[in-house]
Amino acid sequence: MLKSGKDYLEGLRDGRKVYIGGELVDDVTTHPAFRNAARSFAMLYDRKAARENRDVMSFEENGERFASYYLMPKTKDDLRKRMETHRRIASWTYGLLGRSPDHVASFVTGLAMRPDLFEGIRPGFGTNMVNYYKYMRANDICATYTVLPPQGARKPELYEREGMRVPTLRVIDETDDGVVIDGMKMLGTSAVFADETWIGNLLPLAPNQVKESITCAVPLGTRGISMWSRKPFEKYAVSEYDNPLTWRFDETDSMVIFDRVKVPWEKVFVHDNADMSREIYVRSPAHSMGNHQSNVRFWEKLKLILSIAKRVADMNGIVHIPQVQQTLAKLAAAEALLSGTIYGCIENAESIVPGYLNINRRHMYAALLWTTTQYNDLCDTVRELMGGGPFQMPADISVVKDPAMARIFEDYWSVPGQSAVERMKVLKLGWDLLGSEFAGRHSQYEKFYAGPSFVVTNYSWLLGPWAVLDTMLDDLLGSYDVPAEYKSSKTAAK
Questions:
Q1: Which helix (H) or strand (E) segment is 275 a member of?
Q2: Do residues 203 and 149 touch, judged by C-beta distance below 8 A?
Q3: Which of 215, 342, 393, 425 is in the most buried spot, having the most CB atoms within 10 Å?
Q4: CATH architecture label of 5-282
Q5: How many helices (H) does the chain have, and how many strands (E)?
Q6: Using one digit for the tens of pLDDT, what is the confidence trace for 400-451?
Q7: 179 and 171 in contact (C-beta within 8 Å)?
Q8: CATH fold of 286-463, please?
C-alpha cells in the first residue's frame, strides 16, 4: 500500500511524548517547532504516489503495490529504479532530509535479504526479520533508527556508580512474550516525524555487552518512550522568505528514552549476541544500500550548493573573472565525479547474496568517504563567493512593509537586472544553507552521519583490491630483470 500524506500525518497523532526543553508537545503536526517539516514529510508520500511518479517509485508484487525503496534488486534495472527513487525523493527536499522514508527502509530491505544471519542468532529471528520487512513495506512505514549509545555511556566507569541509572539502552528483563528494554539511544534524527524506530548498534560492542546487543523495532507512540528534541530551528525561523530551508526542512534530532518498554518477540532480531549486533549490517547488503541512498541524497544537496554559487557569481557580476570561473569549474567537477561514482555503483554492480544484485561497495564507500570529508570545504568555497553580501542585507523582509523604507531598499540594494528583494532572496537562501544555525547542524551532520571518519575510511581499506594490485605489480616486476651485462656471477647464480 502506498500511504498518502494525510495518512502519514494522522499516524503522528499517536500520543507520542516529545519534549522541547521542559515543554511537552501536544501534536507535532501543528506545533510551530515541527509542523512545516511534518508537512514536508507528508509531501514526499503524496508525490511518491502521484500518477507521474508511480511507475518509477513503486513496484507491484502479487497484486499489491509497494514503494520502490523496498524492492530487493535482482537486476541492474532494479538498481536503477531504486536509485531514481532515492534521487527524486532527495530532489524534492534538496537533500536536506537525511532520514527521509527511503533511508532506514533500505537498511531493512538489505537485512531481509539475509534471514540466515538472524536465524543463526536464534531460531525464529530470521522469520521475524522477513516479517518485519513485509510489515514495513505493506504499511509504508516511515522509520528512523537509534543505533548509537549516548556519549557518556561509552566509558562504563563514568556512569556505573551506585544509585545512578544506567543510561545506555539494554535488556533488563525477558519474558515468554518479549523483552523489556530500558535506557537511552541516539541519535533519533527525524524521530519526532517517524512511525517507528529501529534500535540496534552500528558500533562494535565488547563481548560482555550482550544485554546492550538488542536489535528490535518499536513504534514511537509506545508507552514508556519519550523523545527529547534538540533546539528546533523551525520554531525560530522569521519567515519562509528569510529562512526558506529552516522553515521547511529541519528534521530535528532527539535523544530517545525508553522507560521499561516491552517489545514482543516478533519484533526482536538480535539478542544476547554482541558480535552479530553490528555484523548484521556489513554481512548483508544493508549497510551499502542505506548509505547508497545517503550518497544520492548528498548529490542533490551538492546541486543546490552549486546552483547558489553560480547565481551569486552572476548576481555580483564576477563570472567573467578567471579565478571565479575556476572556482565554479571545480565545484561542477565535484558534482560530476560524485554522480559518476553513483552511476558506477550500478554499472559495476556485484552479487553478495545469491539471487540478488548489489551496488558496488567499493564505489559506494569511496563516495561516502568523499561526502563526509569534503562538505565543509564545499560550503566554505561558496561562502567565499558570497563575501559580505549576507551581512549587507536588512534583518528581515519586513522592511518592505513600509512604503518609504521599501523605496529606499530598492534604490540602494538593487543592481542592474535584479531588484533588491530578488537579491535578498538569493542571499537569504544561501546563508540559510551555508551559514545559519540550521547550516551548522548540517555541517556537523554530514561529517558524522555515517560514523566517525576513521570508521568510514576503514571500509575502503577492508574492501581495497590489495591482492589484485599486488599481483599486477608482481607481474610487472617479473617481466624484466637486471641487464645481463650488469649481472655479476653471484647475481646470475641467484
A1: helix 274-282
A2: yes
A3: 215
A4: Beta Barrel (2.40)
A5: 19, 12
A6: 999 999 999 999 999 888 999 999 999 999 999 999 999 999 999 998 887 7
A7: yes
A8: Butyryl-CoA Dehydrogenase, subunit A; domain 3 (1.20.140)
